[in-house]
Amino acid sequence: MQSKSQLGKILLYIAAVILIIIFFFPIWILILTAFQPADLSVYSKYPTLILESFTFSNIISSFTTPSNDLVGSLVRSLEVAFIVSFLALALAIPASYGLSKITARVSNKIIVLLFLVNMMPGLVIAIPIAADFLRLGISNTSPFVVFSVAFAQELVVLPLTVFVILGGFRSLPKDLENQARVDGANFITAFGRLLLPMNKIAIFVAFLLAWMTSWDEFTYAVIVAPIAPTYTTFPVTLQNYVSRGYPLISATFALVASIPVIALAVILMKYLKGGYLSGGLVG
After folding, report:
1. Can you say whether residue 72 is alpha, beta or left, with left for phi > 0 and alpha for psi between -120 and 50 degrees?
2. CA–CA separation, 213 vs 152, rounded Å?
């Protein structure tokens, strides 16, 4: 029995190593392409899988070439991501609190209805939204296109934000607010000074998940702002260079886009557990 248990552990470790290699191999290829001379990577007949020569020339040229607009697209993606995240919190916190006050049988059905938008193809929803923005005079060359992209992405982000924060509210003791009200606190005081601080981890996790979802969202960004390169977000800019055949710039852009996601994933690692992501559905 002990030998079978050890064999099972060995097989589990081997499977884990294989999965790690599969997931990190594309990132390693990006690193090789971004930090190696082109004649050893994209222009080589037999590209090497080992970093034989290190250079910053690809990174520097991607940032310094004016026509690349890397910095501009990064700024626009940051603007959209923060608008989406803060707007999601402003809408999700009161919605989650309200859902936590009704029976789980009803609130669970409402949560499922919210996620129906994510179950539908993005193009089915993005095209009518883009048409409505055009009727309002918000074209793809308008400075307001950042807000239009943010509002469109909110459809994807908001259900997840409500789900996570709802799990946080449900994890709090049910009599906590009642005890505060008995002690003389009004609703605003009990909610702002007691419930929100005790639910801050769930709110923090929801904010980061909303930010990460908006950061690499592509469908709504490319439909709402598809043409004007000076108003596109980072994923759209990356797709433009990939489709035009610029492998070095594309690899650099992809590597830069991956850094915030990897950093946030490390921060979220200890929070992405059942206590915060499974608490939204009970009963």
Report:
1. alpha
2. 12
CB atoms within 10 A of CB 141: 11
**DSSP code string of 54-102:** --SHHHHHHHH-GGG-HHHHHHHHHHHHHHHHHHHHHHHHHHHHHHHTS
Q: Which CATH architecture has domain 76-277?
A: Orthogonal Bundle (1.10)
Rounded alpha-carbon distances, angstroms, from residue 77 to 10, 45, 89, 192, 214: 43, 35, 18, 31, 8
**What burial class does residue 5 get, using C-beta atoms within 10 Å of its C-beta: 0-12 exposed, 13-18 middle, 19+ buried?**
exposed
Residue 166's identity, in one-letter code, is L
Q: What span, in angstroms and rounded, lies between the C-alpha atoms of 234 and 256?
A: 10
Q: How far apart are the C-alpha atoms of 215 and 211, rounded to whole Å?
A: 6
Q: Which residues of 230-246 are buried (b: 16+ CB within 10 A; e: fewer)?
A: ebbbbbbbbbbbeeeeb
pTM across the whole model: 0.78
Q: Which of 117, 94, 55, 73 is nearest to 203 (CA)?
A: 94
How far apart (Å, rounded) are the C-alpha atoms in residues 103 and 99?
Answer: 8
Task: Break the chain into its structural domains and give their ranges.
Answer: 2-55, 76-277
pLDDT in tens, 162-219: 988 988 888 888 777 778 777 777 888 888 888 888 888 888 888 988 998 888 888 8
pLDDT at 66 exceeding the cut of 90: no
